[in-house]
Amino acid sequence: MNETVDPKIEDASDPIAFQTEVKQLLNILIHSLYTEREIFLRELISNASDALTQMRFIQQTEREVLDPEAELEIRLTVDADEKTITISDTGVGMTREEMRTNLGTIAQSGARAFLNAVEAENVAANDVIGQFGVGFYSVFMAAEWVKVISRSYRPDAEAASWYATGSDTFHLGTAEKEERGTTIIVKLNADAEEFAEEYRLRQIVKKHSDYVAYPIYIGDDEEQTNRQNAIWRQSPSEVKDEEYTDFYKQLTLDFQDPLTQVHFVADAPLKIYALLYFPAKVDQGMFALRADDGLKLYARKILIEEYTKDLLPPYYRFVQGVVDAEDLPLNVSRENVQANALMTRLKKILTNQVTRKLEMMAKKEVEKYIDFWNEFGQFIKEGVASDETDREKLYPLLRFHSTMHPTEWISLADYIERMGAGQEKIYYILGDDELSVSRSPHLDYFRAHDYEVLTMTDPVDSFMLMGLRKYQDFELQNVAAADLELPVPKETKEDGEAEDAIEPMSDDEVAALVGRFQSQLGERVSDVRVTERLTSSVARLVDVDGALGQEMQRVYRMMDRDYRVPAKTLELNPQHPILMKLSELPEDDALSKTIIEQIYASALLIEGVHPDPSGMIPRIQELMEAALER
Ligand code: ADP
Ligand code: MG
Fold first, then answer.
1. Under CATH, what is the fold of the domain 16-218?
2. Which overall architecture, per CATH, does domain 507-541+565-629 show?
3. pLDDT tens track for 151-165
4. What is the 106 CA–ligand 1 centroid distance (Å)?
C-alpha cells in the first residue's frame, strides 16, 4: 500500500495508528468485493447532512459562529483526469483533534457489532455499514486514498487535514481553508473510476439521497440534484404513492415496500406533521433495519432525535417514520425531550392515529389487515397484555382462529354476532398448536352443542388473556376450567344407537373404577372424579378451584424453565365404552393397569404437559400385542 503523504498536505504528522477495530474494519473493506460500492457516497452525504443539521441547531443557540451567512448545502465535484471526487459541506466541520477521534476510532460497540455481523452472519458489509456508526470508512471500498480538510464552525478554530490510504495509519496536518465545513477528496481506485463522472454521481444521489434535507449540487449545476423537500410537510393529497414508497426506503433502508402509511397534518391541539409507516414484514433481515426503533423527531424541520422512542407505546415500536412538531421548543435538548409535557400529548395523538389507521384497515382493507395481522399481531397482543389504559382500544384489532373457523381470522365482534341467545360468554381454549387443540376433550360439550370456541395457540396468548377478561358485556371463559357453568345444550348431535346398547355402570361400579384410578395414579393427580362434560373423550385433566389458572401456568412455564405444572384432577367419562369395559376387568388384571396408565398419559399429552411422550411407545406396543391376541 502506498504510504507516501500526498504533497498537497503540508506539515503532515508522523503516521498515527488507527484503533484496532478500525484496522480490522479497513482490512475487511479493502479486501472484499462489493456489488454496491456506490453506497460509500450515500454514507459521506449522510455525514455531511448530519454536520449541517448540527450546524442548523447550533445557529439557533450560539451567536458566534464562522460564516453565519453560508448556505447549508452539499457540493459534489469530479475531476475526471485525476480520478477524484470531492464532497464538500458547510456543516459544523472538525478541528484537528476532532478528526483524530472521529476518523481514527469508532465506538467499540458499533465496531464490534459490525464486525460480528459481517463475519458471523455473512451479510454484505456494504448493505449494513451505515447502521453501525462506521459509515465513513466505507469510502475505502472505492478509494486509493482519502483526504479530509475541515474547518470547525468555532470562530477561533483553524483548518486541519486528515489523510489515509486504508493502511493501518493515518496522518494529521494543517491546511488552508477559509470557509466553515468539511471537504473530502476521494482518489478513486483504478477499478472504481466509473464514479468519476457527474452523471453517475447524479444517479447515485437520486437513488440513495433524494430526501436529504439540504440541497445537493453536482459540478457547476445551479440546480440541486435531490428533491430535498420534506415530504411529510406536503399535503397528503399531493404526494404520490411511489413518493411515499421511495421516502420510506430511504428512511428505513428497508428494501421492501411498506404495507401502508399514515400521513397527517394537524393544526390542533398541536401543529404537527407526521408520516408513519407500517413495514410489510417484521423481519426485514436483521440488518436491513435501521439501527434502532423509534421515530425521527424534528422541530421545525430540524432533527432533534433520530430514534425517538417516547412518541409511541412500546407495542407500536414496529412503526417507522417522521414526526415534525412546530410547537416543540428548539432549545429542547436531546436529553430532555422525554421530560417535555408536549411529548406526552404528541404521543397520545400519534398513538390514536396509528390505532385508528389499523381499525380502518381492518374494516375497509380486510386482506391487507390480515397481512398485517399475520406479521404484527403479536405486537397488538402485547399491547393488550401490557397497556392498562389503552388496551380496550386494541380489542377490535384482535383476530382469532376458532373451532368453527379454523383457518380464517375472526374478530371478537364476529364471534359475538354468531352467538346464540343462550350464550353469555366468549369461550376459548388454550393449547400449543391448532391440531392438538382441535382434539381436546375440553371441547366435547361445545362441539356436541355447536358452540364456537376461540383457539389460542400463540405463546403470547396467555399473556394477552390477562388483559382481556371481558369484551363488551361478555366475559371470556376458558373451556378447560373444571367447574365452568356450561351454556344451555343446543340441539344435540344425533348420538349413535350403539352406545345406548351398553348397560350404564352402576354407582358402585363407578365408585370402584374411580378408586382404581386413584390408587394407581396416586400423587400424580390431585383427584379422580366423574364428569358429565365429556362425550367422545375418555378422560380429561383439569385444574380444580384454587389452583393457578391455566393462563398463569403457561406464563410461568414460559418465564421459568423449572416451573412444574402442578398435579391436576383427572375427570372420567363414565359413559365411554372403554371405561365401561375396563370396569368389568378384574382390578389386578395387568392389561387393566396398562390401560389406566395410557388413559392418564393420553390426557397429559392432549394438555401439552406430557413430560416424555415417546415413553408411551412400549406401553402402546404392549396394548397392540394384547389386542392381537384376541
Ligand atoms: P456516524 O456517522 O454513524 O457517526 P461515520 O463513520 O459515518 O459514523 O462518521 C464518523 C464521525 O466522523 C461522525 O460521527 C462525525 O463526528 C465525523 N464526520 C464524518 N464526516 C463529517 C463531516 N462531513 N462533517 C463533520 N463531521 C464529520
Ligand atoms: Mg455516518
1. Heat Shock Protein 90 (3.30.565)
2. Up-down Bundle (1.20)
3. 999 999 999 999 999
4. 10
